[in-house]
């Protein structure tokens, strides 16, 4: 029937013996409370065995619900870069088995201060109206080159704060094994936000996060995490989940016990041949679905007890659903953020660093607009496979790099999209459970 809601406009599901519908666009969740609405959505999902419902009733319901399936209009804005990621080096003191930054490039080369200076000058010149800029140190392992960090911080403060009176924020991503007293002082004095890569308790972390001598990194990382705590430095932990992860609940419970903000990300393909580290199959997704259900139940129970939650993904997911946030792009790649490699080449994001053909230009010749338009994150409305997905305004289109490598219609992208929908399914369940709990408490 042409006058029914399109299936990409909603997600119909059952949870705790009740039926619900999530509307793409308004991001609203409604309980299906009467047989007429249940019959309507049964027809929408293509089940002709639904209870009879008249054409007039269908037209009235569709007209009422259409407004829930349209995202709010956002004014068109040109991407404005006020964040710069510096890929200090591809070199690293570790040899993590799944590292997406693996590359055939020279892993020992270090960014020169002149490249960093030029990249910062370009950002300031292109975006003079910004009141705040962000410098993000990335790698490889950026802490291999401590003097570079000190020099760039001093130079950025002079250019941004001293000459222009603007604010500058410093971020760094590190494996957490090389933090010493001089770095602790730098992080505290300059109010760095530090992201430490760590995969969980010792047995899990040391499966993949190993030094070049094949020894595990856990004990050194946990020792330095305690130092970050002692110095009251703002930091968080980022865990990497891969298709063979079988103890997600153990990981989540460990980080909650550690009482440190943390998030997790899934391994990504960056053109390497080690598919076992990033290629999810049916069995992997089924296993992850079960693990996520266990983890979400644990976090929901903690929230109901009034205990703090340290899982940033869980908290941000709830906030997205509560605020009914619409996400129009998958990330800020090539928009508010650009990355510069050691040679001074621009890329839309760090995931593209191994793919030389995706370079956007360099710090001396500038950015090629046509390449920026090609490789920056796209509006979800422009992505063919996304237009058919109920979770498109929650996801925003996910990773352009993986779509570039595999093609939008590939089996790989289809599985990654299913993974994202599975994650959001559990977030929606947790939101319903907590809203119901709050309502019952207030009554």
Main attributes of the structure:
14 helices, 13 strands, ten-stranded mixed sheet, three-stranded antiparallel sheet, alpha/beta
Classify the secondary structure makeup into a structural class. Answer: alpha/beta
Overall 3D form: globular
Q: Give start-end ranges of low-pLDDT stretches.
A: 102-106
Radius of gyration based on Cα positions: 24 Å
Question: What's the average pLDDT?
Answer: 91
Distance N to C terminus? 42 Å
Number of strands: 13
* H/E element sequence: EEEHHEHEHEHEHHEHEHHEEEEHHHH
Strand order of the largest sheet: 9-8-7-6-5-4-10-11-12-13
Biggest sheet, in brief? 10 strands, mixed
Helix content: 25-40%
Give the strand content: 15-25%
Q: Tally the helices.
A: 14
């Amino acid at each position: 029937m042409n006058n029914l809601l399109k299936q990409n406009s909603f997600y119909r599901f059952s949870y705790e013996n009740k039926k619900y519908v999530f509307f793409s666009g308004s991001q609203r969740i409604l309980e299906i409370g009467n047989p007429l609405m249940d019959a309507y959505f049964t027809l929408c999902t293509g089940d002709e065995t639904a209870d009879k419902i008249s054409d007039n009733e269908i037209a009235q319901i569709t007209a009422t619900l259409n407004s829930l399936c349209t995202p709010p209009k956002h004014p068109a804005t040109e991407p404005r870069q006020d964040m710069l990621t510096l890929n200090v080096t591809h070199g690293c003191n570790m040899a993590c088995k799944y590292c997406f930054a693996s590359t055939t490039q020279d892993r020992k080369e270090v960014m020169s201060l002149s490249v960093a200076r030029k990249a910062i000058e370009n950002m300031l010149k292109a975006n003079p109206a910004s009141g705040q800029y962000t410098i993000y140190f990335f790698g490889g392992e950026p802490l291999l080159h401590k003097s570079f960090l000190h020099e760039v911080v001093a130079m950025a403060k002079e250019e941004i704060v001293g000459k222009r009176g603007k604010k500058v924020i410093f971020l760094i991503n590190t494996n957490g094994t090389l933090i010493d007293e001089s770095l602790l002082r730098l992080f505290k004095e300059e109010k760095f936000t530090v992201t430490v890569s760590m995969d969980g308790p010792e047995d899990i972390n040391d499966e993949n996060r190993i030094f070049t001598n094949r020894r595990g990194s856990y004990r050194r990382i946990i020792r330095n995490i305690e130092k970050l705590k002692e110095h009251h430095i703002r930091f968080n932990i980022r865990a990497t989940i891969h298709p063979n992860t079988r103890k997600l609940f153990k990981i989540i419970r460990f980080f909650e016990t550690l009482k440190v903000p943390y998030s997790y990300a899934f391994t990504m393909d960056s053109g390497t041949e080690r598919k076992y580290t990033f290629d999810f199959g049916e069995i992997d997704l089924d296993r992850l679905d079960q693990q996520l259900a266990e983890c979400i139940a644990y976090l929901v129970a903690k929230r109901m007890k009034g205990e703090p939650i340290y899982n940033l993904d869980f908290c941000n997911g709830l906030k997205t659903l509560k605020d009914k946030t619409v996400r129009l792009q998958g990330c800020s790649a090539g928009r508010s953020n650009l990355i510069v490699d050691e040679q001074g080449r621009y890329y839309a994001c760090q995931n593209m660093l191994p793919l030389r053909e995706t370079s956007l230009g360099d710090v001396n010749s500038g950015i090629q607009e046509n390449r920026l338009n090609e490789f920056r994150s796209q509006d979800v409305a422009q992505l063919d496979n996304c237009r058919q997905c109920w979770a498109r305004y929650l996801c925003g289109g996910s990773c352009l790099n993986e779509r570039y490598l595999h093609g939008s219609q590939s089996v790989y992208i289809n599985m990654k999209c299913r993974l994202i929908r599975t994650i959001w399914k559990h977030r929606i369940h947790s939101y319903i459970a907590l809203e119901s709990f709050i309502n019952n408490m207030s009554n």
